[in-house]
Design a protein that fits this description.
The protein has 460 residues and is α/β, with parallel strands linked by helices. Strands 1-2-4-5-6-7-8-9 form an 8-stranded parallel beta barrel, surrounded by 5 helices. A 5-stranded antiparallel sheet has the order 15-14-13-10-16, with no helix packed on it. A 4-stranded mixed sheet has the order 20-17-24-25, with no helix packed on it. Helix 6 packs parallel to helix 7. The two termini are 39 Å apart.
């Protein structure tokens, strides 16, 4: 059933499903593309680049101190083979990374950041396959409570048993299960975690996974071999992820800013593209990377959703394809366009205002010169054409006169005569002749038959 008498903008605002589209940017081990991982310098850089959280890893020293390190063997970061669990923390702390910083404990990190409330951390418990070290969760809960970090941390782990234990020790702290295989996700694990941190490959192969987990009220974080490839980031932000763990927090923040504050609406309607020039699609409506696909005049499309970003509306017409909504109409029938398509338009008034978009809520761009004819570049409407795009901008169809010639034997004229009366435009100026360079004009309701032309004119 067609929606009638709704303006372009009103139609969008009445579509039902709305949700926030932001996501958390989590610096993977700080900002490792700029500074040595798991150092204060790297963490500070991640926060400065826009990270909401910094991800860090924990091991336990021989004397039961939580040590910030991804590897159990520190050779990759300090240059010599030192096993964390086989050494006391005093010795570990004497070791330095390439930037001169010492290996630090979780307590030392919390001490440094305790008075910086906007700094938050996603902490990974590194456990062996047999669940060692057994005391890690108790040490972690103690440290979090000591520095009052309950509202500033989240826990994630490959170890389901570690997360189950944390759910009992600190039930208010969010917990995420890290998975690289769908076989690891089950209802038992989901009963004591708040979400999953999942390999991007699993989402690529199972596109419904995010919505399924959201229906279970579980958040979805994504990790990958993160880089600055627009292809990867475009793919990520087109999915409704809740967070991304990245080696490039500045890039993540850029995409988050582009997406934050937008609204997405479910539509699921068919429409047509009514533009004269081919319209390239983009991979997302936020940072617009063009695809190799384009729309052509009268091409049918299925619109699954609309995204309002920076007061502009984009239609999603494929998994990774978005187009500006201006010249895609969901209710305008091609038969209501074709009779007028090759006509020109002229201003009906001395000052026909033009707009940036086919809505009066958009910015004014210019006006039509009353002595100039304009080509129709695109149209938008419902039961009939409501807006026309010219080189000056979008103009209301009620503010123009169609200018051209219908030959009574032409297909165009027959198409016009077959339209319902409600779709037959009466603001048509059809001129078979010019007299002394002046347009022949007629009263609105007068019909003049001369040669093979019918002439309408709604000007006195």
């Amino acid at each position: 059933m067609k929606v009638k008498h709704l303006s372009f903008f009103t139609l969008i605002l009445t579509i039902i499903f709305v949700f926030n589209s932001g996501f958390l940017v989590i610096g993977h081990r700080g900002n490792p593309s700029k500074y040595p991982e798991e150092t204060i310098q790297s963490d500070n850089s991640a926060f400065e680049d826009g990270a909401d959280y910094v991800e860090l890893d924990l091991h336990v020293s021989k004397d039961n101190i939580l040590v910030v390190s991804h590897d159990r063997d520190l050779s990759r970061v300090v240059g010599s083979s030192v096993i964390v669990s086989q050494n006391n923390f005093n010795y570990l702390h004497s070791l330095t990374q390439p930037n001169g910083e010492h290996i630090i404990s979780l307590d030392q990190l919390f001490q440094y950041y305790k008075n910086k409330p906007k700094t938050k951390f996603l902490i990974e418990t590194k456990k062996t396959s047999h669940g060692y070290p057994k005391n890690m969760e108790d040490l972690l809960a103690k440290s979090i409570k000591k520095y009052h970090m309950q509202d500033r941390v989240m826990i994630h782990s490959f170890s389901a048993s570690s997360l189950e234990k944390m759910s009992k020790l600190l039930p208010s702290v969010p917990r995420f299960f890290i998975v690289g295989s769908l076989k690891r996700i089950n209802f038992e694990v989901l009963s004591y975690v708040n979400g999953v941190n999942i390999s991007s490959d699993l989402i690529t192969d199972n596109p419904d996974l995010i919505s399924q987990l959201h229906k279970l009220d579980k958040k979805v974080f994504v990790w990958a071999e993160m880089n600055e490839s627009p292809k990867l980031w475009n793919w990520l932000i087109n999915n409704d992820i809740d967070g991304v763990v990245t080696n490039f927090p500045a890039t993540g923040y850029k995409y988050k800013l582009a997406k934050d504050g937008t609204k997405k609406y479910s539509i699921n309607k068919d429409g047509y593209y009514f533009g004269r020039a081919p319209l390239n699609s983009t991979e997302n409506p936020y940072i617009q990377t063009k695809t190799n696909e384009s729309l052509n005049f009268l091409q049918p499309v299925h619109v699954s959703s609309a995204v309002v970003n920076d007061n502009k509306i984009f239609y999603q017409i494929g998994d990774k394809e978005f187009v500006p909504a201006d010249a895609v109409s969901l209710d305008l029938d091609p038969k209501n366009v074709l009779p007028y398509w090759n006509l020109q338009v002229i201003s009906k008034t001395k000052l026909a205002q033009t707009y940036q978009q086919p809505t009066q809520n958009s910015h004014l761009t210019s006006s039509l010169n009353p002595n100039q004819k304009y080509q129709i570049l695109a149209v938008n409407g419902g039961e009939k054409i409501n807006w026309i795009l010219t080189k000056q901008g979008w103009v209301k169809a009620t503010d123009i006169l169609y200018y051209g010639l219908f030959n009574s034997n032409s297909l165009t004229f027959k198409e016009y005569r077959q339209l319902p009366k409600s779709s037959q435009a009466t603001n048509i100026a059809l001129f078979p002749t010019l007299t002394h360079n002046r347009v022949v004009s007629f009263n609105f309701w007068n019909t003049y038959r001369a040669e093979n032309a019918i002439i309408y004119n709604d000007r006195q």
